[in-house]
Amino acid sequence: MKKLRYALYTGCTARESTPELLKSTMAIANKLGIELVLLDEASCCGASHLQDFDDMLSLVLNARNICYAEKLGLDMVTICNTCQLNTSLTKERLDKDPELKAKVNAKLAEVGLEYKGTSEVKHFLYALQDDYGYENIAKHVTKPLTGLNVAAFYGCHNIRPSHLQNHSNGGENPYVPKSIDDLAVALGANSVDYGSSNKCCGFHVELQNPKTANRLSGSAMLDAIDNNADIMVTPCPLCHLRMDVQQHNISKEMGREISIPVLHLPQMVGLALGLSEKELGLNHNVTPIQ
């Protein structure tokens, strides 16, 4: 098959709070023969907070990030659901509104950039699904995840709003998403059917209302556990921070002990491809991986 090449927008979290996500993403890309060019010049997407404070600044920052992919002549892949939402929303607004695009480009011209709209934006999950193909990934599996019950946790921003994200996520059904479940099966695992896979983890309300955040995470995690999940897997580092790091506080809030490994999506793939714990950064995961 033709070698795939993308510009990788890491966002902030994968470089700082969850370095294992970037490490495992690069490791599986290398194993699969996918070239990822890091956009080292890129900045934060605004994390769904800057937008409320200064909409124009948010548009300029996200357009600037896309410009770096355009300069390379590559489509952009993201590895954070919130980055995916903010970047793709910027692209949609600018591509549909010439006047707004002109205003943004007037600011970008100050740093020698121009947004053209030539690069597509998609999450790495959907690059694996739609461009590489799960059947091709399966050919690289050396340690199938046989007998492992995987609960996919999609979160919010990769699948909603569907009118926006369906441009880049293969038409994923936001009510019954299947991309991660299908990937787990391709890797030899069992897919856990549970009702909370597409719920919110609570990350964006954690500072304002930790009780609500813990209840949102806890409800989803207990749903997965009660449906016999061995591990949870998420494509979003913000969901991962909530559900991996906060299990002690979540347990206290829910009044029930919660202990389940939470993997980043590329960590799950990497295990099936025979990559080592070190290559996948599993030592950074807070909840032990058995």
Give a short overview.
The chain has 290 residues and is an alpha/beta fold. The protein contains 14 helices and eight strands. The strands form two sheets. Strands 2-1-3-4 form a four-stranded parallel beta sheet, sandwiched between helices. The protein has a four-stranded parallel beta sheet with strand order 6-5-7-8, with helices on both faces.
Question: What topology emerges from the helices and strands here?
Answer:
Layout: E1 5-9, H1 19-32, E2 35-38, H2 50-53, H3 55-72, E3 76-78, H4 81-96, H5 98-108, E4 121-123, H6 124-132, H7 134-138, E5 149-152, H8 162-165, H9 179-186, E6 190-191, H10 210-226, E7 231-234, H11 237-245, H12 247-254, E8 262-264, H13 265-272, H14 277-280
Parallel strand pairs: 1-2, 1-3, 3-4, 5-6, 5-7, 7-8
Name a few traits of the molecule:
290 residues; four-stranded parallel β-sheet; 14 helices; 8 strands
Distance between the termini: 35 Å
Helical percentage: 40-55%
Strand content: 5-15%
Q: What is the count of helical runs?
A: 14
Sheet with most strands: 4 strands, parallel
Q: Mind telling me the C-alpha Rg?
A: 19 Å
Number of strand elements: 8
Overall form: globular
List SSEs in N-to-C order. EHEHHEHHEHHEHHEHEHHEHH
Strand order of the largest sheet: 2-1-3-4
Mean pLDDT: 96
Structural class: alpha/beta
The residue ranges in which pLDDT falls below 50 over 5 or more consecutive positions are none
Description of the molecule:
The strands form 2 sheets. The chain has a 4-stranded parallel sheet, sandwiched between helices. Strands 6-5-7-8 form a 4-stranded parallel sheet, sandwiched between helices. The chain is of the alpha/beta class and 290 residues long. It contains 14 helices and 8 strands. It starts with a strand and ends in a 10-residue tail after the last helix. The longest helix is centred in the first third of the chain and has 18 residues, at 55-72. The radius of gyration is 19 Å and the shape is globular.
